[in-house]
Design goal:
The structure holds two protein chains of two kinds. Chain A is mainly α. Chain A is built from 14 helices and two strands. Chain A has a two-stranded antiparallel ribbon with strand order 1-2. The longest helix of chain B is centred in the middle third of the chain and has 44 residues. Classes of the chains: A mainly alpha, B mainly alpha.
Chain lengths: ~350, ~450
């Protein structure tokens, strides 16, 4: 009986500190990496402005949320930000299209090499970053409201009688639910609709797609619309789960790239797998297993140190070590095959 | 327009801008900006060698700048004997084990065929090596960081003059670049960009967290200087005499205590200017040496080969040029120059603050300098370094002035106006982005475009 409780305690401990946070973080990364991968598949460059673009979308959501909160409009137990999302997405889409028209279209017409696009995206990154800091400032902003937990640690303990508690935040539940719906809609769109098929054709072979009468500008426009929507949602969910700070969002660029490349850049399935691979490794490699091992081993074996593979400060480094290893061992990423 | 004339005009414009700051704000501010402009110019030269000469897309500049900064600490700070006694032995064992593990990995990589067996073997070696390393490394780190943690808690340096660190910083960056290049240079351009961006973040993470080496975010301050201290200068006779002689006109009219007071004030002001000028002198020497060498390299057969590789890798390969080898070479040289600049920067600051390394300022801003100045043209890179750093600093006062002016019709306590005034400092990011995009679009060669000499019959 004692051994059985110990094992259960260890499992709950791991669920609480590794599995639940990783699933939520993985879903956020997957949504962000989907944006990176779609831009890569259609426009054929690595978009360095993606993190700041996400900050922009989230900023709009935060501003609308504040306005709604000040008007006394809310969703009860759910965060008000969900109500602010649709208008925020619309505004972000407009911003994305303006950016594409004014910057990228010129280089697309000239068929510039990818490096030029990337440098242009660095310019866009500066501009977006500047706009976000100019409007909302560089500091942490909280905009979450409503209920905080689906299951509280203490309630879980009372319910099960275990030593360890399991808590699931509303934002984590929302993240996973919304991510599943979005991914299903996205795959339905890419595989079943005319525009989705046109996108896949364009990404597979640009010249052939042009010959079959596919309008490249329309394909690019749809790509930006999807990316803007995904990015705004991913940013808002991340902000609800943690908090909104422009610089953190800029730094998320690295795990996004890592997720997209690890999964196989240009492939939506890859981005999703990559997102979870990165999230699980970041969290599980930097977790201290001392308590976990104490439950599972006889008392005399209890470890002295924290039993942590890498210090938590190396979280971002983990994704890049994985990225470098994948680039060396399997440059095509986990999912091989055609783009999109 | 004649390229030389264009360069002369643009550099005169730059000089004019410094004069405006000197007379308008103060000479101290102008010199501070000037010194950082010189360092920026060196960094831009390093990136220009990689991107302008060879077309290598390295956005890991920040990591190499930081390595230069680490060199400044490790060369100039006095060694801390207690820390070495406490953890040096264990640390040495951990280092030997690390080297053995890496050697085993490299050997296995060379001796085995590509395939799952190789991957498995390498993974096994890394896992087997990791735990013994931690066994010695962890107690060593704990012991070192426990030595007077509020002041030291790290190993210290070699206690040599800080000027050596400029060379050492170059070598640090070159060594890191060699490893990175070996791993990452086979990738296509935008993959290389992502990989280098990631590696630079890893370097910063290490510097921030390995307190035994760099004190991490606790910073190392009070680095020795290559130039005299202001306080010492103010006590030195020849300096006071020189100031008195220079300001003869003002001082002659005064007598007694009044004269002493004015003279003291002048000495204090001049000592700060003198220190800054001494730094400028050192930096100018470095800039001239690096500029001359890289321009000679660019105009040599080696430079022509690099440009041939940049413009068409396949035909350069067909001509028998070793593309991978040359890429690695240019990557190492460019990074070394960035490392030298990093050491110079930390020397000027007098402290290493790992928390302040930010990719926007130390990687992407340097890229803006190179693109705006003119990639492939050394003069252009230097000019870009000057212009961009100047406006990066001056964007704030200009932004404040602009917003103050354009919102002057609002009431003084209008919340919109107050918010805009407070956010004016973020204008610089916006301005830099817009400048980069405009130059790329309308003047892709930059302010001073690359000059290609053509030989033979071409009219």
């Amino acid at each position: 009986m004692d051994i059985f409780t110990d094992i259960l305690n260890a499992l709950v401990l791991v669920s609480n500190f590794i599995i639940v946070p990783s699933i939520a973080y993985g879903a956020q990364l997957a949504l962000g990496a989907l944006g990176v991968t779609l831009i890569y598949a259609i426009l054929r460059f690595a978009n360095f402005a993606h993190g700041d673009f996400m900050a922009f979308g989230t900023m709009v959501t935060v501003l609308i949320t504040w306005w709604l909160q000040s008007m006394g409009i809310g969703l009860g137990p759910l965060p008000t930000a969900l109500l602010a999302l649709p208008p925020a997405i619309a505004i972000t889409i407009v911003a994305a299209l303006i950016m594409d028209r004014s910057v990228y279209r010129f280089y697309r017409k000239k068929r510039s090499p990818p490096a030029i696009f990337v440098i242009a995206s660095i310019g866009v990154m500066f501009v977006t970053n500047g706009i976000v800091r100019f409007i909302i400032g560089p500091n942490d902003q909280r905009f979450a409201d409503g209920e905080r937990f689906i299951i509280k640690a203490r309630a879980f303990k009372q319910m099960t009688g275990l030593n360890e508690g399991l808590s699931i935040k509303v934002s984590q539940g929302l993240t996973v639910g919304i991510a599943i719906i979005l991914v299903m809609v996205l795959f339905w769109f890419l595989n079943r609709t005319r525009t989705g098929k046109a996108m896949r054709a364009y990404s597979d072979n640009e010249d052939l797609a042009l010959l079959s009468g596919i309008d490249p500008e329309k394909v690019v426009m749809v790509t930006w619309i999807i990316t803007a929507a995904l990015t705004t949602i991913a940013g808002t969910l991340y902000g609800l789960d943690k908090s909104f700070k422009p610089f953190t969002y800029f730094q998320l660029l690295l795990p996004f790239f890592a997720a997209a490349i690890v999964g196989g850049i240009g492939k939506p399935v890859g981005a999703i797998i990559g997102g979870f691979v990165i999230a699980f490794s970041e969290i599980s490699i930097t977790y201290a297993y001392k308590k976990f091992l104490t439950y599972l081993t006889p008392e005399s074996w209890a470890p002295e140190g924290l039993v942590q593979l890498l210090s938590t400060d190396y979280k971002f480094a983990v994704s890049f070590i994985i990225l470098v290893v994948v680039l060396l061992v399997r440059p095509t990423g986990i999912v091989k095959g055609k783009v999109i | 327009m004649n390229p030389t004339l264009r360069a002369v005009m643009l550099f005169s414009l730059m000089a004019g801008l410094f004069l405006i700051v000197g007379f308008g704000q103060s000479w101290s501010v102008a010199l501070t900006i000037f010194n950082l402009c010189l360092i920026s110019a060196v960094m831009a030269l390093g990136v220009n060698i990689q991107w302008g000469y060879a077309g290598l897309f390295n956005v890991g500049t920040m990591g190499f700048v930081a390595l230069g900064g680490v060199a400044a600490v490790l060369v100039s700070k006095a060694p801390i004997t207690d820390a070495w006694v406490a953890g040096g032995g264990d640390l040495a064992i951990a280092a030997v084990l690390t080297i053995l593990t890496i050697a085993a990995v490299v050997l296995t990589y060379r001796r085995t065929e590509k395939g799952p067996i190789r991957n498995l073997a390498i993974t096994a070696i890394i896992v087997l090596g990791y735990f013994p390393i931690r066994l010695f490394y962890d107690p060593a780190v704990l012991a070192i960081e426990a030595v007077r943690p509020a002041y030291e808690g790290y190993l210290g340096g070699l206690g040599l003059p800080i000027l050596f660190s400029w060379v050492v910083g170059g070598f640090f960056a070159a060594g890191a670049a060699w490893v990175v290049g070996k791993i990452a240079l086979g990738l296509r351009s935008d993959y290389l960009a992502i990989a280098t961006l990631g590696i630079s973040e890893i370097i910063i993470a290490i510097i921030k967290n390995e307190d035994w080496l760099t004190r991490g975010v606790k910073n190392v301050s009070g680095l020795p200087r290559p130039v005299p201290y202001e306080v010492d200068l103010q006590q030195t006779d020849w300096f006071i005499d020189a100031v008195a002689n220079l300001n003869d006109g003002v001082l002659a009219a005064l007598t007694g205590t009044e004269r002493t007071g004015v003279l003291n004030q002048l000495v204090i002001e001049s000592s700060s200017i003198f220190v800054k000028l001494s730094y400028s002198g050192l930096f100018i020497v470095v800039l001239i040496i690096i500029f001359t060498l890289s321009t000679r390299a660019l105009n040599s057969p080696w430079g022509r080969m690099m440009r041939a590789i940049r413009d068409n890798e396949i035909s350069a390969n067909a001509m028998g040029k070793n593309i991978t080898g040359r890429h690695l070479q240019v990557f190492v040289i460019g990074s070394a120059i960035v490392g030298i600049a990093g050491a110079m920067l930390t020397t000027l600051d007098g402290q290493l603050t790992p928390g302040t390394y930010n990719p926007l300022r130390f990687t992407f801003l340097v890229w803006v300098m190179v693109i705006v100045g003119g990639s492939g043209n050394n003069m252009g890179a230097v000019l870009g370094g000057f212009f961009i750093w100047f406006f990066w600093i001056e964007a704030e006062p200009i932004g404040v002035w602009f917003i103050d002016f354009s919102t002057s019709w609002m009431a003084g306590d209008n919340p919109v106006r107050l918010h805009l005034m407070n956010s004016a400092q973020h204008m610089r990011l916006l301005i830099m982005g817009v400048v980069l995009l405009l130059v790329m679009r309308f003047n892709p060669g930059g302010l001073l475009p690359e000059v290609t000499k053509r030989f033979g019959a071409q009219k």
